[in-house]
Amino acid sequence: MEVLKIATAGSVDDGKSTLIGRILYDTKSLTTDKLEAIEKTSKQKGYDYLDFSLATDGLVAEREQGITIDVAHIYFSTPYKSYIIADTPGHVEYTRNMVTGASTSQAAIILIDARKGVIEQTNRHFFINNLLRIKDVIVAINKMDLVDFSEEIYNSIKADFEELMSKRDYQEQNITFIPVSALKGDNVVNHSKNTPWYNGQTLLEHLEQLDRKDIYNTGTPRFPVQYVIRPKTEEFHDFRGFAGKVYGGELKVGDEVVALPSETRSKIKDIYYYNEKCQTASRRSSVTITLEDEINVSRGDMLVKIGDLPTIDKQFTATISWMDAKNLNAGNKYVLQHGVNKVLARVENIHHKINPDYSGIEEDIDSLKINDIAKVTFKLNKPIFFDAFKNHRTNGSFILIDAQSNSTVGAGFIS
After folding, report:
1. Is 355 strand, coil or helix?
2. What pTM was computed for the model?
3. Cβ(75)–Cβ(84) under 8 Å?
4. CATH (residue range 311-414)
5. More confident residue, 237 or 158
């Protein structure tokens, strides 16, 4: 079954957790004990309704304050798809958490409070979705029940957001507007009688009909080798396979490939999916590949098609989302992990800081603080093989690791 990863975004108290709880409730994805706990806690708080945010806000501090602090991953399925929803916090100080939650998502839901309309945080959340090349974005205008399901207010917010869309640099995004009430359930899973002026799909209907070609950014195939398989059995004495996951495109038996960094050539002999032979390795499939020639390929190497080589270099410029309490300064050294490869990287130059509310850039920056986003140049101790992030989300991204603490301190997207 197809798995769709979704990131949520919205300002504080826009109703992200309530929306997710409502989806779980209306699709009957909540367990009996969880539903009983929600009913009990809602009564204890004096509510005359079910507080669906309790289905996702798992931390004690989240339940006490009624806000989302950390990224929560929620899993549920329908007869058509399986879903993983990243419930990300809306606070400015947790921007890094939203980047983390959205970095592996194929679709996003941006919530807007119908009473407040488009605010600064809306700009920030749309910027991050644009930066991360999220292809399908649903703008859920929430709490319509608190504005009497006004079509005029809905159209006004839609017009404001469309003005924001004109500032983006990723034009291939599909933007869908849906008026909802997460608390009451209007247009979330079931159509609402309160919005006769809205003829579009419900939120879940839209997610159900999303096609892979509409949500995955296409690109040339990249096959980073994660493991070399050499069975120690008589039956497979001469077997030498390369296990990994296909990104960006598909590979077929007979394709001429180049092994990086050695740049030696061969052809794909066989493709194994578990213990079955296949003719094609589709995008995002985990397979084992054998080659016709005995060339030297190790973990961390990459197989690519001849004529579709990535950039091979020891220096590049990238957009960085800084996630650590310790500042990033020019000259600092980090471990840069790109796929399965780890190299040493030095910060050569901080070009400028990017304001994620679309208010421009700040130049003459000598350091980055937590949650800052900036354009930075790195110099590496050995070459890596990469693509621009806009062309290849997987091969154009990396993380930075503090060598002393072994903590992930930043995420990068290659220009």
Report:
1. strand
2. 0.86
3. yes
4. 2.40.30.10
5. 158
